[in-house]
């Protein structure tokens, strides 16, 4: 039976939205007879029509009943906007621009210049540098990699063929490295707490950006696979948890105990599909961690 590598598919980026909170010293503004609730409503309406980027946020201080407006580095446009309505406004000077935060979660999509794969696991080295672990035939595509919330960072290592693993260095401070694996519609995210190996005959699950959460059993260790064209990979684990193109690099984990799992490896390839069933192979995670001197981010 000819085996097919689980590979690329096109996809669109989705921006996650959340907000950081600025911190800085406050400076007083002139009081007025306008109450804070009314002024807050006016500021919201004014912001909807346009607000300087230097105005990073506003809220009502319940103790003083003043509206607090955060302005980046005492920008004159921001200060003018904050004080334009009068009333009980206090200006807070900030030094950092809020940014959107988003999570890197196992099984969600990652985008290379010419294809889509899936996040495997998050890890870090001894100095704290963060990495995403995925399949080597994905990182072989090279370049800067994007996730569901934006840029993750550049490919930092690839081993394929022979092995099938690679790493992406996380350079985006807004991208949060998590111990989570996405179960999509099958349930809430599960948390990786270790890397105890699931034995032959035991249940195993995987997650990927095409076929989402699928489970099966471990069938064999130390499997060699010939993907054709000279691409032979050794030392893989064989399972009957199905997968399809775009799932590559996604995580295999132990069958959940509540909401926790043990990391097993990342999808290399296989045959069949999730309509009729299939055979898949994963690269064990322990070998990847040893090769790059990494430690899993766990919960």
TrEMBL record:
<feature type="domain" description="Peptidase S1">
    <location>
        <begin position="104"/>
        <end position="289"/>
    </location>
</feature>
<dbReference type="InterPro" id="IPR018114">
    <property type="entry name" value="TRYPSIN_HIS"/>
</dbReference>
<dbReference type="InterPro" id="IPR009003">
    <property type="entry name" value="Peptidase_S1_PA"/>
</dbReference>
<keyword id="KW-0865">Zymogen</keyword>
<keyword id="KW-1015">Disulfide bond</keyword>
<protein>
    <submittedName>
        <fullName>S1 family peptidase</fullName>
    </submittedName>
</protein>
<feature type="signal peptide">
    <location>
        <begin position="1"/>
        <end position="20"/>
    </location>
</feature>
<comment type="similarity">
    <text>Belongs to the peptidase S1 family.</text>
</comment>
<keyword id="KW-0732">Signal</keyword>
<keyword id="KW-0720">Serine protease</keyword>
<dbReference type="InterPro" id="IPR004236">
    <property type="entry name" value="Pept_S1_alpha_lytic"/>
</dbReference>
<dbReference type="Pfam" id="PF00089">
    <property type="entry name" value="Trypsin"/>
</dbReference>
<dbReference type="InterPro" id="IPR001316">
    <property type="entry name" value="Pept_S1A_streptogrisin"/>
</dbReference>
<dbReference type="InterPro" id="IPR001254">
    <property type="entry name" value="Trypsin_dom"/>
</dbReference>
<dbReference type="InterPro" id="IPR043504">
    <property type="entry name" value="Peptidase_S1_PA_chymotrypsin"/>
</dbReference>
<dbReference type="Pfam" id="PF02983">
    <property type="entry name" value="Pro_Al_protease"/>
</dbReference>
<dbReference type="InterPro" id="IPR033116">
    <property type="entry name" value="TRYPSIN_SER"/>
</dbReference>
<dbReference type="InterPro" id="IPR035070">
    <property type="entry name" value="Streptogrisin_prodomain"/>
</dbReference>
<keyword id="KW-0645">Protease</keyword>
<feature type="domain" description="Peptidase S1A alpha-lytic prodomain">
    <location>
        <begin position="40"/>
        <end position="78"/>
    </location>
</feature>
<keyword id="KW-0378">Hydrolase</keyword>
């Amino acid at each position: 039976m000819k085996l097919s590598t689980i590979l690329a598919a096109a996809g669109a980026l989705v921006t996650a939205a959340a907000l950081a909170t600025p911190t800085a010293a406050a400076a007083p503004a002139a009081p007025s007879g306008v109450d804070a609730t009314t002024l807050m409503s006016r500021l919201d309406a004014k912001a909807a029509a346009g607000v300087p980027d230097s105005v990073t946020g506003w809220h009502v201080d319940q103790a003083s009943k003043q509206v607090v407006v955060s302005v980046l580095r005492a920008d004159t446009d921001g200060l003018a906007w904050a004080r334009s309505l009068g009333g009980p406004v206090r200006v807070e000077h900030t030094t950092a621009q809020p940014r959107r935060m988003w999570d890197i979660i196992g099984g969600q999509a990652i985008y290379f210049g010419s294809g889509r794969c899936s996040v495997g696991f998050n890890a870090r080295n001894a100095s704290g540098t963060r990495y995403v672990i995925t399949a080597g035939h994905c990182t072989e595509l090279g370049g800067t990699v994007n996730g569901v919330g934006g840029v993750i960072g550049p490919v930092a290592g690839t081993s394929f063929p022979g092995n099938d693993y690679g790493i992406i260095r996380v350079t985006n401070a807004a991208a949060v490295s998590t111990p989570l694996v996405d179960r999509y519609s099958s349930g809430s995210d599960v948390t990786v707490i270790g890397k105890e190996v699931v034995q032959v005959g035991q249940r195993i699950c995987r997650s990927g950006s095409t076929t989402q959460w699928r489970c099966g059993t471990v069938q064999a260790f130390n499997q060699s696979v010939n993907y054709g064209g000279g691409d032979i990979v050794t030392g893989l684990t064989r399972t009957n948890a199905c997968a399809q193109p775009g799932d590559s690099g996604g995580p295999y984990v132990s069958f959940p105990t509540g909401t926790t799992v043990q990391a097993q490896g990342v999808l290399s390839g296989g045959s069949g599909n999730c309509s009729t069933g299939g055979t898949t192979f994963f690269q064990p995670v322990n070998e990847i961690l040893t090769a790059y001197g990494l430690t899993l981010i766990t919960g």
